[in-house]
Amino acid sequence: MVIMFVGALELEVLLGDVHSLKEKRSLVRPVVAELQRKFSVSAAEAGHHNLHRRALIGVAVVGADVTHVRDVLDSCERLVAARPELELLSARQRLLGPEDE
Questions:
Q1: CA–CA separation, 5 vs 45, rounded Å?
Q2: For 13-62, what is each residue's pLDDT tens digit?
Q3: Is residue 88 part of a domain?
Q4: How many domains would you assign to the chain?
Q5: Dmax over Cα atoms in the chain, in whole Å?
Q6: Is 74 part of a structural domain of the chain?
Q7: For position 101, what pLDDT does the model report?
Q8: Residue 101 counted as domain residue
Q9: What is the DSSP string of the chain?
Q10: 55 or 101, which is more confident?
């Protein structure tokens, strides 16, 4: 039997002194790229597209070990929380396993 776990992370962030969507993208894109590069996750700006100072970043990871999936999501959250140009407003994790349908 193959066991697979899917982890999802929603990170709502407040951006600093941003006055346009172009400035917002210049802050959010590098964060998304770093998450993808550093942790081999899928990541994207997933919400608040029309707001200048807020962003919702979504992260997803798949693995065979639930502990590994949780560790990766925790590491992604810490990376975003440590960015000085962002203020992490909320972080929500979800985990789907073989018993979920």
A1: 22
A2: 999 888 888 999 999 999 999 999 999 999 999 988 888 899 999 999 99
A3: yes
A4: 1
A5: 52
A6: yes
A7: 59
A8: no
A9: ----EEEEEEEEEEESS--SHHHHHHHHHHHHHHHHHHH--EEEEEE-TT-SSEEEEEEEEEES-HHHHHHHHHHHHHHHHT-TTEEEEEEEEEEE-TT--
A10: 55
In a domain, residue 89? The reply is yes
And the tokens for 56?
């919702």
Q: Which residue range(s) make up the domain with 28?
A: 8-94
Residues 6+ apart with CB under 8 A from 48: 12, 54, 55, 56
> What CATH number does the domain containing 81 carry?
3.30.70.1120
Q: Indicate whether 93 pLDDT > 90.
A: yes
pLDDT per position as a tens digit, 63-90? 999 999 999 999 999 999 999 999 999 9
